[in-house]
DNA sequence: AAACGCCATTGATTCAAGTCAACGCGGCGT
DNA sequence: ACGCCGCGTTGACTTGAATCAATGGCGTTT
């Protein structure tokens, strides 16, 4: 695996002095480790399926990683030895044709679970769209817990079904929407994931795009030129404001939704 | 639900005389019901997760349905009261935009499981691409068994992950392949599902397309004219033979694969 | 501060696939 | 036998997005 740009903090690593994190992960009776209590994955993610003792055990085997923008997490057709929870940032899942054409087939936000159970090597690549922090576990530990705790498998099933719904939603976008509709749909999807409050109710929403123009093109099956042109069109029509390349403000969520084709 | 064109054989239905099927489903000790023993779903499908007693119980609650080509199984945003195994035929999963544009987001072959656990109403439509036979169960029975038998949830997870892999594979096709590559990929996928032997090893493979030109277009994000033209091109190039509208012979599987873009 | 690289935008032109239209073929009802 | 209808094919033309090419910020290096 290309570990370029990946900083790893192992909680099992012998530290010069026991730091706060280290202590936070030690199991006390069967209450959850302090670090996990504050973790999104503990509540909305797969760790919610575990009891205090299991959580402590998993936490002991886990380590945090901070991955910088652009770094590859999993190569295509690579043997994968660990699973992770996304704690922050955005991970892009990609597929590449032999001649280099690329398609982003999914985006993962906190607290999504990253990994493909029941398959030795992955059929997709994963890389950090933004700086990403992960809580990673050895494959074997997670797989043993899946057998011991059916609730965990239930969570994974729920996430897999949600991802399947998402993937099928994007199949419609890829297959049947125009470039303009694709861009509108994309902005709405990002807004809903990054700034859910604003995107749901409010008229305006402001956020940083987690993807470059090139990534957006690879996600929507377009070229960067078309992405750029459609964004300027939305800007000229007063639907979005482009603060700078990355920062976008949706001036009118309802009008944007009207251009998404559904 | 639109039951037009759906013939239902209930195994709980009081028959004028106990027929073979009826007797086959009665539980004897804990050996599997005779009907299930011969069923593909018993071996490769989700029923493989159940023991003899559970299988007998599920079989008692099940009923067979034969659905004719074109009939709708599940409407979009419809409340779904049952799950099914596909025993034969092909089910198409569709999504439709408000203005009528349609995208087929998946195809299900025997012995796939049909249904979306953990969600009250479906977000996709399902209809019979060919004549389809289903083994259907009440939602509640399956959901209880999922709780009692984690193996069942494991099977569903595996199928969901496989479907997710398929969906992502098609996202690449929809987003990044040319019309010619889309058609080649489609023919290969169908061949692998319908005539796996021939498609894998042999040089030629022969099968009936389970979809109309219009369905193929909706699956690949193309128009029927483009589908027709690309098929003609493959025929002129001697890669396929079009026996009649439905029946296709792949003259050279390797050459076809060479045109699929991957 | 000049030079470079990277990312994004904008304009001019091309082309793959869509649209519109005509026609062919086979099954079905009258 | 006839006309009709649904499905598929083929041809002529149009168009939306890709391609090719030039230019503009902006941060980093020298």
UniProtKB/TrEMBL annotation, chains A, B:
The chain positions of domain HTH crp-type read: 177-254
The record's GO molecular-function terms, alphabetically, read:
DNA binding; DNA-binding transcription factor activity
Cellular component, GO annotation: cytosol
InterPro entries assigned: cNMP-bd_dom, cNMP-bd_dom_sf, Env_Response_Regulators, HTH_CRP, RmlC-like_jellyroll, Tscrpt_reg_HTH_Crp-type_CS, WH-like_DNA-bd_sf, WH_DNA-bd_sf
Give a Pfam family name.
cNMP_binding
User: Is Cell cycle tagged as a keyword?
Assistant: no
Q: PROSITE patterns in the record, alphabetically? A: HTH_CRP_1, HTH_CRP_2
Quote the SUPFAM superfamilies the UniProt record gives.
cAMP-binding domain-like, Winged helix' DNA-binding domain
Which keywords does UniProt give here?
DNA-binding, Nitrogen fixation, Transcription, Transcription regulation
What SMART domains does the record tag this protein with? cNMP (SM00100), HTH_CRP (SM00419)
Q: Does the keyword Transcription regulation apply?
A: yes
The UniProt entry, under PANTHER family, shows:
CRP FAMILY TRANSCRIPTIONAL REGULATORY PROTEIN, FUMARATE AND NITRATE REDUCTION REGULATORY PROTEIN
Q: What is this protein called?
A: CRP/FNR family transcriptional regulator, anaerobic regulatory protein
Task: Record the organism.
Answer: Aquamicrobium aerolatum DSM 21857
